[in-house]
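W.,

You were right to be curious about this one. When I first looked at the sequence I had no strong expectations either way, so I just let the prediction run and decided to look at it fresh. Below is the sequence, 403 residues in total, followed by the output.
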Amino acid sequence: PNYLPPQWSPHINPEGQLYFYKDATIPVVTEAYLYDQKVMERVDYWIKDIEDTLPKKGIVLSDKVELFIEVDDDNDCAFYFIDHHTRTQFWLDNVTTEDMGIDPVVSPSHLSSSISKTSLLGAENQMTSRSSTFPHDANECSRFVKLLRSFQGSPEDGYMRCVIARLYHLMLKHRVNTHYGQEYARLHRNQSILADTARESRVLHILTSLLTFGTSKKYVARLNNIYLDQQVYAHQWQPFIKDALYDWRTISSLALLAPISCLVFFFIPSAPIITFICASFFGISFMSSIFLIHRLETMSNATAKVASIYLGDIRSDRFKFQLAAFAYALPRASFFWGIVAYMVNCYIAASSFMAEAGWPSAFLWLAGIWLLAFIMFHNATSRNKLFRLLEYRWRREPESSPV
């Protein structure tokens, strides 16, 4: 069994975080793992140091003040005091709003509200938030509560015991999966607590991102987020696969109609090989969309267990979800490459027309205009800028003050 010194007691918050409370003249709360004797010694050292510093600075604490303290392996300490009466935090030394991570404020009352907001972060509960570790969303939880309330005042029977036992089993399974109350508990869904030996290929990441215009990178991020520590939540998987199916259906419709526009190149000067490449990309986009829809349509309503088994089967120890993400991105990427080939053929046709009209250098101007338009569109809609164009700002000259 684990033992603690007098006045200390263990507690677990609703999300499963283990913390310890010291019932003393200055109450102390810490998330440090005090069952480790070395950690306990470091915490005691810093508590005594802080208590000795208070009278030196002439600070008298009310009975509503509590000390929160954390220590690390280098014996460094981080702490703050919180006044539960005024809902504010304070320290022994002066700190700035920048040190506290508080946004700029415009008045003392605004600052007080910001500090109160910060002090309540430790008391918030995120059971029904998007990052909650609970395997059921708010709607399902509401149905569970409604079902349990329906049993109130009813005689106990086998059905009632079965329902309650099933729900209790779900709660216990959730606690086991999140390491509830353990030294390292999963406090939000995006937090990994298990070692993962699988790795991603940097070269494959760059290659697939370029070939798919960044689409595969987005799929990799979402799949890694859904299949974290081999845990899958149905209310996270189902929206993801439904969004993907909608995208593939849309792309398949466009890719089926797009080759018709390629027929125009049989009647104007163009490059036959580019026309073939254009049509091929549209064909690949259509066929890959249909294949993915056929393969994954039944997964749109899959349970968490079924989705977990599927993701575990397609995950690679060497590339994780990079290959699957490339397959998911293939319909959209192929359609985009078909558009690129189509635009190249349009440029060739326009250049031939201008050359025949006696404007041999006009196609260079056309290419420059197209390139500039693409760069401006990309920079206006993307965080990754291709080129930093010079920005000219018109500034009004200050008016001279009257004499």
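Here's what jumped out at me. The chain has twelve helices and six strands. And, maybe more interesting for your project: Confidence is low (pLDDT under 50) at residues 389-397.

Coffee later to discuss?

I.
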